[in-house]
Amino acid sequence: MSISPLMPVYPRCGVRPVKGEHCHLIDEDGTRYLDFASGIAVNLLGHSHSGLIGAIQRQAETLMHVSNLYGSPQGEELAQMLVDKTFADTVFFTNSGAEAVEAAIKTARAYHQHEDGDAQRTELITFTNAFHGRTMATISASNQEKMHKGFMPLLPGFQYAEFDNLDHAKSLMSDKTAGFLVEPIQGEGGIRPGSDEFIHGLRKLADDNDLMLVFDEVQCGVARTGKLYAYEHYGIEPDIMATAKGIGGGFPLGACLATEKAARGMGFGTHGSTYGGNPLAMAAGKAVMEAVANDTFLNEVAGKGERLRSRLEQFIGNYPEMFELVRGKGLMLGLKMKVESRPFFVHLRDNHQLLTVAAGDNTLRILPPLVAGDAEFDEFFDKLSAGAASYDAAG
Ligand SMILES: *Cc1c(COP(=O)(O)O)cnc(C)c1O
């Protein structure tokens, strides 16, 4: 047999972490890496946060899992925290981002298939280079062919408009349109924030036509950008939102948030999940929310984001032939490169023990744990400078 026991869907690299310490990962052979990938925007409290560990330990000893057939004091508590801190009135818990987006898609469709709705409105307008996950519905929601190949047929009900192009989205609207599904800041697509005009325009189109504005904040949410959720930067609110990644700080957890109006189709028996919202996940989510959902922490992230960004802007001035620009918000930053970004990302990882994430549009994603500080930023620039200097000389 030549297939590996782990189904070979990931081209895994040679880094094999076995331990995490704050902002570092330690490999099987003892090599230490500076982790500015954070499990792709997941480990926002770093790798050995005593509060998160303690919360999970205590809950594991008390009660790990019960069915959603029973009442959930743990779920009510975390849902209430999210309701208090966001636009939402109600929350459905999931175990991943794709499931949170699935729940969001179902909520948007069910809004129109409710008795007060217009049942022919079944289509969501989504955007080019989006990433919404790897289930059939979420790959169907993205125009990226590399995710479709081999998995036909796609699910119907998605129209692709160009990201950040309001006129294009408007031109695809019809009496079948149910709403818009968009990452306000594209992650995988290359850390591309939607413009104010684009996001405000979608909100207005949704308001004027009784459509659902659905945000996928799986990557940009949970304090990553210096606000609890990225929609706050735009001064508008979505009707439905998917969140995951950072919300469990490394424990698998996601959620679909909605207003009361948007959730009108999600009554008894319409949706479910065996694990979703189990007490262990709720304990992790609560520990994360307690750490990040306050002005002190959020302002710190915003301040660190400013410092990291201005240092990056200064730095790229030294290598005008390699780097084009810095974009993003808070500690969700992208370095758009003029030369191919993927080999440089590999070079930083393998030769300088610096972990970042490659992304679309020739961009290097820089996603430090939100608890990283100036010491980690200094180490980051030491590694990045050494990496750029050796790469430049070799290239
Ligand atoms: C990662 C991601 C997802 C999918 O999350 P999973 O937990 O991998 O299912 C969905 N949307 C966005 C924007 C993401 O970055």
TrEMBL record:
Classification via PROSITE patterns: AA_TRANSFER_CLASS_3
Entry EC no(s): 2.6.1.11, 2.6.1.17
GO molecular function: identical protein binding; N2-acetyl-L-ornithine:2-oxoglutarate 5-aminotransferase activity; pyridoxal phosphate binding; succinyldiaminopimelate transaminase activity
BP GO terms, sorted: L-arginine biosynthetic process
InterPro entries associated with the record: AcOrn/SuccOrn_fam, Aminotrans_3, Aminotrans_3_PPA_site, Class-III_PLP-dep_AT, PyrdxlP-dep_Trfase, PyrdxlP-dep_Trfase_major, PyrdxlP-dep_Trfase_small
Keywords assigned by UniProt, alphabetized: Aminotransferase, Pyridoxal phosphate, Transferase
Cofactor(s) essential for the protein: pyridoxal 5'-phosphate
Family: Belongs to the class-III pyridoxal-phosphate-dependent aminotransferase family.
UniProt protein name: Acetylornithine/N-succinyldiaminopimelate aminotransferase
Source organism per UniProt: Qipengyuania citrea
Lineage: Bacteria, Pseudomonadati, Pseudomonadota, Alphaproteobacteria, Sphingomonadales
